[in-house]
């Protein structure tokens, strides 16, 4: 994953929008900025709550329109299994294949570039006479922190949160 700062992400997004002849409106930019500052995924309604800090009048359609635009431009990904959105750190290559590693315990999402898988998917698409634009693969399991919690046998004397509270919404990863 890229180590770009939120400022670098915003600058690159503005540049790409100019090149593509699309408008990065103030609201779209604010939603992208909020997402760029997050280390993981977020639901649309949690994003709306954050947007309302700077734009108290913001409504769900405002966020959904911005998310649709950002998805179209390849700046973010939708994580279907937990109905959240995550920043894409490879949006300079919009046709890349991403693997979303989704933690079943805490709902953290980690995006990885699926380099070897791209060729297989591309070949399958070609065989089917299908014009592939973008693909996202979701894989479920446990993140590093949750593996440690699940492996812990000293529940009374450790600092882990052993409460199994599977998250429905996105969470930092």
Task: Write a structural description.
The chain has helices spanning 6-20, 26-36, 44-54, 60-72, 115-127, 144-151, and strands spanning 76-79, 84-87, 97-103, 109-113, 135-141. Residues 166-173 have low confidence and may be disordered. Helix 1 packs antiparallel against helix 2. It is an alpha+beta fold and 173 residues long. The strands form 2 sheets. The chain has a 3-stranded mixed β-sheet with strand order 4-3-5, covered by helices on one side. It has a two-stranded antiparallel ribbon with strand order 1-2. The chain has one domain (6-151): Arc Repressor Mutant, subunit A, CATH 1.10.10.
Beta-strand percentage range: 15-25%
CATH class: Mainly Alpha
Terminal Cα span: 12 Å
> What is the chains' assembly state?
single chain
Strand order of the largest sheet: 4-3-5
**CATH-assigned fold name:** Arc Repressor Mutant, subunit A
* CATH superfamily membership: Winged helix-like DNA-binding domain superfamily/Winged helix DNA-binding domain
Can you give the helix content as a percent range?
A: 40-55%
Q: Which radius of gyration do the C-alpha atoms yield?
A: 18 Å
Shape summary: globular
């Amino acid at each position: 994953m890229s180590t770009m700062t939120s400022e670098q992400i915003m600058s690159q997004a503005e540049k790409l929008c100019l090149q593509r002849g699309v408008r990065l409106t103030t609201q779209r930019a604010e939603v992208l900025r909020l997402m760029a500052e997050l280390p993981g995924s977020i639901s649309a309604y949690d994003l709306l709550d954050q947007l309302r800090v700077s734009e108290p009048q913001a409504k769900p359609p405002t966020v959904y329109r911005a998310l649709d635009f950002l998805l179209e431009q390849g700046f973010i990904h939708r994580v279907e299994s937990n109905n959240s959105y995550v920043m894409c750190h490879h949006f300079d290559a919009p046709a890349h294949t991403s693997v979303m590693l989704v933690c079943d315990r805490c709902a953290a999402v980690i995006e990885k570039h699926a380099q070897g898988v791209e060729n297989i998917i591309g070949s399958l698409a070609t065989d089917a006479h299908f014009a592939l634009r973008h693909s996202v693969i979701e894989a479920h399991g446990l993140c590093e922190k949750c593996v440690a919690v699940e492996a812990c046998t000293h529940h009374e004397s450790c600092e882990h949160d052993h409460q199994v509270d599977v998250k429905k919404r996105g969470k930092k990863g």
